[in-house]
Model the fold of this input.
Amino acid sequence: KAGVTQTPRYLIKTRGQQVTLSCSPISGHRSVSWYQQTPGQGLQFLFEYFSETQRNKGNFPGRFSGRQFSNSRSEMNVSTLELGDSALYLCASSLVVAGGLTGELFFGEGSRLTVL
Amino acid sequence: SQQGEEDPQALSIQEGENATMNCSYKTSINNLQWYRQNSGRGLVHLILIRSNEREKHSGRLRVTLDTSKKSSSLLITASRAADTASYFCATVLSGSARQLTFGSGTQLTVLP
Done:
């Protein structure tokens, strides 16, 4: 079974631009989450999608948005990029276990964004 | 913000020794999970322990959970150079479905 696939793996943007990152979850997984990882703030939850609906959102400005398609693939978008948005963006998929609680997450290799 | 802290921040041991990492958290949890991350790569799930469990084993891994102290520990026995990685604990907060809150991580270096 193929793992979580994230594209692109690396990208460089300049301040003010926008970026779209893509994530294909493991087949059969309907929950997709996004995390930002930086040296200073560590791993922080961005948002989670299930059945094309955003279910949870972390404490990030509105410049960070996402969506999920009917095939469970997800995209996240960051508009008006700032230097501080440079980070490794990780996507994870999971099965929704009983009670809707979080079981294990399966992570992709991440998209490393550098903002100049 | 992060749920808690991991201790130590960095750990260096010889191959064959045991490695113990600790994780503390602040609020009630549904479960606690441990993940491993090789440099610049994605995270790999190691083990999940539920709030009503006290200890769990998986191969060379042993995880304990003390909900009264809001702490967990990960023990890796007979470590190998390939265990060199960052290890993160992550909590699922009570009432917070499908969202992990990660600790700050422990960087483990196993010297051959």
Remarks:
- Residues 2 and 55 of chain A are 25 Å apart (CA to CA).
- Chain A has a mean pLDDT of 93.
- Chain A has no helices and eleven strands.
- Chain A touches chain B at residues 4, 31, 33, 35, 42-45, 48, 50, 55-56, 58-59, 88, 90, 92, 94, 96, 99-110, 112 (CB under 8 Å).
